[in-house]
Amino acid sequence: MCGRYASTRSPQDLAQLFEVTEWHPEETLAPSWNVAPTDDVWAVLERAPRGADEDAPAQRRLRPLRWGLVPSWAKDVKIGARMINARVETVHEKPAFRRAFVKRRCLLPADGFYEWEQVKDANSGKVRKQPYFIHPEDGQVLALAGLYEFWRDPAVKDGDDPAAWLLTCTIITTEATDAAGRIHPRMPLALTPEHYDAWLDPHHRSTDDLRALLTTPADGQLDARPVSPAVNSVGNNGPQLLDEVPAP
């Protein structure tokens, strides 16, 4: 699974990296070294302009979304806390994700992500969870494959009110490889740049072709380092969370 990650690049940098054509400067998010479920996160997605026909040319946008997908049919937003991840093996079939898989795909930029390994203390014999920060070897941004969804808040009567709509997302996960595989059996699936266009294109709706894009995560070029247990608390944040600590 993926339950925490780091995302510290500025929206200006992300817009350039992902060739975004629409970003509203008033939409801002602080850098985070400890992104947690239900936080707002940056997402790159493509949609036709508002009011245009569904088949109109799409614009690539950078938008903040809430992490934890709330299906359009959900009665309330609480379900989102359980929908932070979607398994690549079944994402095209599950009722919560299958419509978004066909029409609403996104990329979630990340510096890296955290996974935990159970280790036994040599002195006490107690088992504890040791966090690791897993990141690209070359320091480049990870583009995590995701889905997004719109949820209509029935408490807001005016459908044209921006508050009437909640935009949420989920991260697709796969079997772990490389450094991540030594720590945890699952990991987020990151796409390589040559697949960005096909993944984001809302007019690309072949399930088989889309699933073919979800192959080796991050092209297999990942490194991992043990970090402080301080990351275990969502209240902790800052670049010190990425500092390497002695291996257990």
From TrEMBL:
<keyword id="KW-0190">Covalent protein-DNA linkage</keyword>
<keyword id="KW-0227">DNA damage</keyword>
<dbReference type="GO" id="GO:0106300">
    <property type="term" value="P:protein-DNA covalent cross-linking repair"/>
</dbReference>
<comment type="similarity">
    <text>Belongs to the SOS response-associated peptidase family.</text>
</comment>
<keyword id="KW-0456">Lyase</keyword>
<dbReference type="InterPro" id="IPR036590">
    <property type="entry name" value="SRAP-like"/>
</dbReference>
<dbReference type="InterPro" id="IPR003738">
    <property type="entry name" value="SRAP"/>
</dbReference>
<keyword id="KW-0238">DNA-binding</keyword>
<keyword id="KW-0645">Protease</keyword>
<dbReference type="GO" id="GO:0016829">
    <property type="term" value="F:lyase activity"/>
</dbReference>
<dbReference type="GO" id="GO:0008233">
    <property type="term" value="F:peptidase activity"/>
</dbReference>
<dbReference type="Pfam" id="PF02586">
    <property type="entry name" value="SRAP"/>
</dbReference>
<keyword id="KW-0378">Hydrolase</keyword>
<dbReference type="GO" id="GO:0003697">
    <property type="term" value="F:single-stranded DNA binding"/>
</dbReference>
<feature type="compositionally biased region" description="Polar residues">
    <location>
        <begin position="230"/>
        <end position="239"/>
    </location>
</feature>
<protein>
    <recommendedName>
        <fullName>Abasic site processing protein</fullName>
        <ecNumber>3.4.-.-</ecNumber>
    </recommendedName>
</protein>
<dbReference type="GO" id="GO:0006508">
    <property type="term" value="P:proteolysis"/>
</dbReference>
<feature type="region of interest" description="Disordered">
    <location>
        <begin position="220"/>
        <end position="248"/>
    </location>
</feature>
